[in-house]
Amino acid sequence: MIDIGSNLTHESFASDREEVIARAMNAGVVQQIVTGAELASSIEASILAAAQPAVLSSTAGVHPHHAAGFQPAQLAEFRRLLALPGTVAVGECGLDYHRNFSPHEAQRAAFAAQLELAAEVRKPVFLHQRDAHADFLAMLTEFAPRLCGGVAHCFTGGIGELEAYLALGLSVGVTGWICDERRGGALREAVPRIPLERLLLETDAPYLLPRDLLPQPRSRRNEPGNLPHIADAVARVRGEALSLVAAATTRNARRLFSLDDPAR
How would you classify the pairing of strands 150-152 and 31-34? Predict the structure, then answer.
């Protein structure tokens, strides 16, 4: 399986990152895409990917939380990162009106710059949206004809949002949110509607630890090694075999992000 979204640059992995990667490999997670959230973490993610190219790839971009710190002068460095063979997508980029850590205008400006960059470098977009669907959809619709694909990362919405993203040609990333009995109802209704060839899996580690893990780990830190648990939940909701979901999502990730198969 491939975890398309792990935040291995997070400080919680600083002391045992190699052990985390090894546990994931032992669980069947053969590759991970390490998420960049602003310039510094994008650089760090690219360094991790370069050190273990058979196992790790990375993204480069500015999360909406960090949009206020984005400067157009940074685009040259993002272009450099995106020219590296291990940097496979632009982002994490998008809009987040839930926490509003950056002003909406700054978020939209940073998002537009990254959509333009993705069109220029011909890399897919790794997308974030929370409580900003209308603006997010309008901006994506404007750029969609020039983009070469993308994923609605950590999708938590319902059928209406799903259909809008599918109509734009996006793939859909599902996390352990599907395992949350409190908040995951809309997602569980939507997941069977995702075409198998558009489905992707991710942990968003260290965030979104599946609530139904048994036994519950002492730490609340999520790990990429929990991806098979998420895959099993997705397969059960869809009424499909785990082996089918695992094979299809792996194939989908390699196609969207142009990942090499390390087994070859």
Answer: unpaired
Q: In whole numbers, what is the pLDDT of the chain averaged over residues? A: 97
| Confidence band for 191, pLDDT divided at 50, 70 and 90 | very high
SS3 234: helix
Q: What is the pLDDT of residue 261?
A: 86
Residue 92 preceded by cis peptide, ω within 30: yes
Give how far the C-alpha of residue 247 lies from the chain's centroid of Cα atoms, to the nearest Å. Answer: 18
Residues 6+ apart with CB under 8 A from 16: none
Which H helix or E strand runs over 252? helix 242-257
Query: With contact defined as beta carbons under 8 Å apart, do 9 and 34 qualify?
Result: yes
Q: Are 261 and 232 in contact (CB under 8 A)?
A: no
Rounded CA gap, 200 and 245, in Å? 9
Full-model pTM: 0.96
Under DSSP, the state recorded for 124 is -
The helix (run of H) or strand (run of E) holding residue 167 is: helix 159-167
By the 8 A CB rule, do 136 and 155 touch?
no
**Measured distance CA(198)–CA(187) in Å, rounded:** 15
Other beta carbons within 10 angstroms of residue 71's beta carbon come to: 10
Closest Cα partner for 176 from 233, 249, 242, 98? 233
Beta bridge mates, 151? 126, 171
